[in-house]
Amino acid sequence: TWSAVPAGPPDPILGVTEAFKADKDSRKINLGVGAYRDEHGKPYVLSSVKKAEESLTAAQPDKEYLPITGLPGFTQNAAKLAYGAESKPLVENSIAVTQSISGTGALRIGGAFLGRFYPHAKAIYLPVPSWGNHTPIFRDSGLENAPEKSIVLLHACAHNPTGVDPTQEQWREISDILKEKKLFPFFDMAYQGFASGSTSRDAFAVRHFVSEGHQIALSQSFAKNMGLYGERVGAFSLTTVDPEEKARVDSQLKIVIRPMYSNPPVHGARIANTILSSPELYAQWESEVKGMADRIISMREKLYDTLVGLQTPGQWGHIKSQIGMFSFTGLTQPQTKALADKAHIYMTADGRISMAGLNSSNIEYFAESVSKAVKG
Ligand code: PMP
């Protein structure tokens, strides 16, 4: 039956982890996947998450299905986190929001909804470069890459893979241009809090566009900022003009979602909601997000200093000026290949590294290996 099925290529990002796992060298480093690691290189479960889970365990909630659009408290709190408590459409109850299977699921729901109901274009502009999964997500949603009157996908903060974000001034300009050309902004916010350490500062672009009167689509992920990767917690929302329009949009979101996966998983949304609705856990969470962001910044400084100290040819200032989890190093494909083959260091072929994979035990070995690879 499947004799005609061709073997597909490995995923360009998750394939890096497979190569890493197969390497038996003790010095090996995985800088491919965008998952935070603590200073010992270990996966990190936030204390606020542990506390939320403890209180959930004590409460012994049932395992009933959630509604199609997810846990209502969670989606309201997620919208509040992104848009801000004072946001006009939020206060006026005109944001249609649904829980999603993390950020990927939110993008996919958004793609499906826009493909069905955005009558003006069947096209979406993606940044070049962008997160590798954006192209297949929107291709599978029936949206094409085409020249004009399009939906524009914007990374709300901590652009992946470059780590280069527009300044607030540049965001204002981008907002004006989109308005002038009547383009539709679709924000992908996968790293709120990770860019600056402040969740509200990182929401600047989203909030500015909304305050300027743009209708927006928004994908949110709680994978990175709450460390809830495998729990798959996210939200997709659309701002609408009034509660009546919101209700119509809500009804169609349900119709889009029901045949895709019926309803979302409950546990991770409960964790996120427990944190977002408890002032104490919220404060602790914010300081933990800042802690992760700060550790990454300190690794940027250390890496820069070491590369420069080793008189590595080239300019390395971007390592420090880039923002968020990733650094777009500028390493070439042959250099990244040499690093994998000779130094057991794994990153995506475009030279992107997850800064979170570096720590005080491996950063010198990494910098020395990079320096060697660049010197040839
Ligand atoms: N958008 C961007 C830009 C990302 O970097 C990621 C995660 N790598 C996502 C969306 C979605 O990730 P998830 O589905 O794990 O939330």
From TrEMBL:
<dbReference type="GO" id="GO:0006533">
    <property type="term" value="P:L-aspartate catabolic process"/>
</dbReference>
<keyword id="KW-0663">Pyridoxal phosphate</keyword>
<dbReference type="InterPro" id="IPR004838">
    <property type="entry name" value="NHTrfase_class1_PyrdxlP-BS"/>
</dbReference>
<comment type="subunit">
    <text>Homodimer.</text>
</comment>
<dbReference type="InterPro" id="IPR000796">
    <property type="entry name" value="Asp_trans"/>
</dbReference>
<dbReference type="GO" id="GO:0030170">
    <property type="term" value="F:pyridoxal phosphate binding"/>
</dbReference>
<dbReference type="InterPro" id="IPR015422">
    <property type="entry name" value="PyrdxlP-dep_Trfase_small"/>
</dbReference>
<protein>
    <recommendedName>
        <fullName>Aspartate aminotransferase</fullName>
        <ecNumber>2.6.1.1</ecNumber>
    </recommendedName>
</protein>
<dbReference type="InterPro" id="IPR015421">
    <property type="entry name" value="PyrdxlP-dep_Trfase_major"/>
</dbReference>
<keyword id="KW-0032">Aminotransferase</keyword>
<dbReference type="Pfam" id="PF00155">
    <property type="entry name" value="Aminotran_1_2"/>
</dbReference>
<dbReference type="GO" id="GO:0004069">
    <property type="term" value="F:L-aspartate:2-oxoglutarate aminotransferase activity"/>
</dbReference>
<dbReference type="InterPro" id="IPR015424">
    <property type="entry name" value="PyrdxlP-dep_Trfase"/>
</dbReference>
<dbReference type="GO" id="GO:0005739">
    <property type="term" value="C:mitochondrion"/>
</dbReference>
<keyword id="KW-0808">Transferase</keyword>
<dbReference type="InterPro" id="IPR004839">
    <property type="entry name" value="Aminotransferase_I/II_large"/>
</dbReference>
<comment type="similarity">
    <text>Belongs to the class-I pyridoxal-phosphate-dependent aminotransferase family.</text>
</comment>
<feature type="domain" description="Aminotransferase class I/classII large">
    <location>
        <begin position="143"/>
        <end position="369"/>
    </location>
</feature>
